[in-house]
């Protein structure tokens, strides 16, 4: 199934995930100094930039693994209609996503269990609590 972008209703970009980190006082002080000196707009700007730089450093490794493991890079969304179509075709899905996997709110736990053989998400999974609970044994 093709990847379908998930956009928040008020924004023209994918929904962001929050990430909480613990950081030492000295590192935090250095971050604040760089912000104060105008190198970055705020702490989050520096942290996002550092993460992007590290991802860029390892871009070739990411590309190789995505190819080797047949992982969808980006956002992939599954509606009840998508899963019903797979079920009608007798297909069991092995979902592998690096980014955001969305199982739509209209998907029942029964339909998810009938059609999703395995689920690997490196990033974030958006699904109802009932669907997440049903698939817990199929998460890799």
UniProtKB/TrEMBL annotation:
Organism domain of life: Bacteria
Q: Pfam family of this protein, just one?
A: RHH_8
Q: What is this protein called?
A: CopG family transcriptional regulator
């Amino acid at each position: 199934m093709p990847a379908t972008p998930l956009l928040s209703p008020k924004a023209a970009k994918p929904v962001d995930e929050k990430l909480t980190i613990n950081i030492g006082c000295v590192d935090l002080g250095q971050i604040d100094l760089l912000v104060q000196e105008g190198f970055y707009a705020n702490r989050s700007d520096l942290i996002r930039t550092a993460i992007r730089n590290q991802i860029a450093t390892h871009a070739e490794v990411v590309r190789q693994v995505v190819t080797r493991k047949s992982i969808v890079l980006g956002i992939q969304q599954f509606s009840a209609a998508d899963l019903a179509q797979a079920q009608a075709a007798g297909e069991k899905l092995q979902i592998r996503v690096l980014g955001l996997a969305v199982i739509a709110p209209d998907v029942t736990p029964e339909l998810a269990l009938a059609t999703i053989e395995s689920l690997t998400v490196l990033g974030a999974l958006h699904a109802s609590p009932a669907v997440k609970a049903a698939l817990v044994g199929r998460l890799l």
